[in-house]
Automatic annotation (TrEMBL), chains A, B, C:
Belongs to the urea transporter family. The keyword Ligase does not apply. Keywords: Cell membrane, Membrane, Transmembrane, Transmembrane helix. Pfam families: UT. The keyword Nuclease does not apply. It is found in: Cell membrane. The chain crosses the membrane at residues 26-59, 65-85, 92-114, 120-139, 184-217, 229-248, 253-270, 282-303. This is Urea transporter. It is a multi-pass membrane protein.
């Protein structure tokens, strides 16, 4: 692999979070991160770069590296750790350690999931970040006076749902994949997705809406819905199941809706499950649901996996 | 598949919880559920029907559908959710969502466990119900003033073991597979098992006894023993390991006893593990123990798997 | 298998905890356990014997038995349970039940991990001991007035790191694999490792140092570092990745260092994760990290698995 191939590989390491390789998508995503806050852009790229370089040094096959498949978990590790542990030198160290761990875990999962034809998705990011966040209180230098991040609903318990929650939640569901909770940042991500294809952007928006509807019907707090917290796992699941990994069909769309509903229900589960130990929801619901929904496809004569 | 094949498929979806397909067993089980409470019968059948129909719509192979293998997790999801969330419209919605999720998870596990020749057992039910119960407090409409169900021992701490605990516990160990805690309901289930074969009923009864003995020796609370809470996982493990999935032999019986002991020990573990997040024990101990005990069989020259 | 082959098989069941089969290593380890406390020696050998005998009775292939691969999880189960539940008859019973469960789980994992060419490591010990310790409060006869063991740092919060912590921590990192926290017991284990090969002892010592450095940099409590609690998982990971399961090379050493770092970070995670339910860290971090690092090797052209 040539050195000149590294920058595009790292850029694709940002867009691959949403399964995309188009360079315009990648640019939009990077812009969105910087609009969300310079630290998200810098630490996200740091994570993607360290993860990608680790893969190169260890000798991962070059098509995975250039496709950005070795970088995207590093991106999210960088963004998540700077969010939880602030801009500090120890955070830089943690992102480097985390991205290396995530890189090894990626290759391990490629081997373990290969026989079942399942991608790693963001599982390495989820695992490494959960390990760091749950373990952090044991380390004085990381934790120092920090406390568990509370969900938006903690500040506004019992608040009524407003129209603002609805439309901002729709965009935030797209942005929260990268921990962003400003609606216009979500919109930039959505524009990036549109460069990858109209279907992708449409799937994302509809899945975000499905997440919101399920959350309203079951009675989730309004502030969390408005922040997009019940949408982002549905968004990733929705994109994955409509055309990306499952061939598009009428039944396939229903299947994707079921997946988005399941991801929303799992969001509440993962959040509550990790509460006693201070873990975060991350994209665990998407990973679990989409693995299950893809693993099940061969048993169903009505559905087909996309050729990879 | 013809529409006329659906009702027997759904009925077998009740008896397959205990690995049985005999229609008399299925009828006894359905009667037992209604004797336990009309809501258990109705929601159990609802869950079995939705799960079976989902499998049909998605195109699962018809021998699995007609054998009831696509329905039994739905049955338990229905019974469990009406127990935890009462007779309400939101519970109907949850059972439908849960049965669909359970159906997809069943097909995913069939694919994932296939190479190891392991059945899904009640894992889809355990997973879906745990997700629903742990996640429920996040949803106002589901939770509304509800609190975690306390075990019987909470009301009678330190009570002495009585003869009534012993003999009722023996039958309740059979009934608790379906969350039933009246001894005569357990007896109806046992009669149903007898229709499937004398060995099956005997295994169930002996395994229930093993669970009680282990619980007494280790010092579990009398009220929980009497309610059958330390027996039902041993019962399922016992039936599975004597003749059903392992060829019957002298060593095989010892192996089944070891499995029943392990399931009883795991009952305490799973109960305590889920306590901080409000999860329930369900049949996790049986699933974990029996998967392990079956996966190990090929390594043992003294034991053999039953031909399927 | 002849009866005379049993004692050496059981002895190797002690040294296999550190992947070694040399009889001098085994003798040193047994001596170290007795120096640590007679109960550790007796219960460790009891666990190894029960586990090995279970494997013989069930008919496991004799090369696994004579190599000590069927005994080492039993050894640790015996040592751990006598540490947590004291010298009592109920502990003897628990060790017997636990060693049988661990033996079956070992064979199950051999089958499940076989396709990926991963050893069981101490996973059966970790699983069985976690099950016992988390489940114990449910059983009056086991628990009786017991409380969760507190880490050394609980007694000395905020104490400064001393030179004694450093050099004793280095040896304790080797001894804590067997729950031993006296530096000279760790030294006897280290001498045992030296009989197996200079590289093995060197790897152990360096990995222990890596664990200490990472713990200091991230700010772990001094008392825990001195007790070796941040070193023993790094020690096992270090030995496993340098020559034992991965061919030694310059990149391989870097890989092993990354593994030791990851094991130290995971130590904090596992400790915090199990806190709400009273579980212990055990060697979970080593098992998880080393499985992942070995599973990833085939994806890396720069590394190679050792021939087994």
């Amino acid at each position: 692999m040539k050195a000149s191939e590294l920058p595009p590989a790292i850029a694709r390491g940002v867009s691959q979070v949403d399964f995309q390789v188009d360079y315009r998508t990648a640019l939009c995503f990077i812009v969105a991160l910087f609009v969300g806050g310079w630290q998200f852009g810098v630490f996200g790229l740091l994570g993607a770069a360290v993860a990608t370089l680790t893969a190169v040094v260890l000798g991962v096959s070059s098509d995975r590296v250039t496709g950005g498949l070795e970088g995207f978990n590093g991106t999210l590790i960088g963004v998540a750790l700077v969010l939880y542990f602030d801009v500090r030198w120890v955070t830089v160290l943690l992102v480097i350690i985390g991205a290396i761990m995530g890189s090894v875990l990626t290759s391990a999962l490629v081997a373990l999931l290969g026989p079942y034809n399942l991608p790693t998705f963001t599982a390495p990011f989820c695992a490494v970040t959960t390990i760091m966040v749950v373990g952090a209180p044991a380390f004085e230098r990381i934790w120092r006076g920090r406390s568990m991040a509370a969900p938006p609903s903690a500040a506004y318990p019992g608040r009524e749902l407003t129209f603002t929650d609805l439309w901002q939640g729709l965009f935030n569901g797209v942005g929260q994949v990268f921990f962003q909770s400003k609606w216009y940042v979500g919109l930039i991500f959505l524009i990036g997705l549109a460069f990858a294809g109209r279907l992708v952007a449409l799937s994302a928006l509809l899945a975000s809406a499905v997440g919101i509807v399920v959350a309203i019907v079951l009675g989730a707090p309004a502030a969390d819905i408005g922040a997009g917290l019940y949408g982002y796992n549905a968004v990733l699941t929705g994109i994955a199941l409509t055309g990306t990994f499952v061939v598009l069909s009428r039944l396939g769309v229903l299947y994707a809706v079921a997946g988005a509903v399941a991801a929303t229900v799992l969001t509440a589960f993962v959040t509550d499950f990790f509460k006693p130990v201070g873990g975060h929801t991350l994209t665990w619901p998407f990973v679990i649901v989409t693995w299950i929904f893809l693993a099940a496809v061969p048993a169903f004569s009505g559905l087909r996996r996309s050729p990879t």
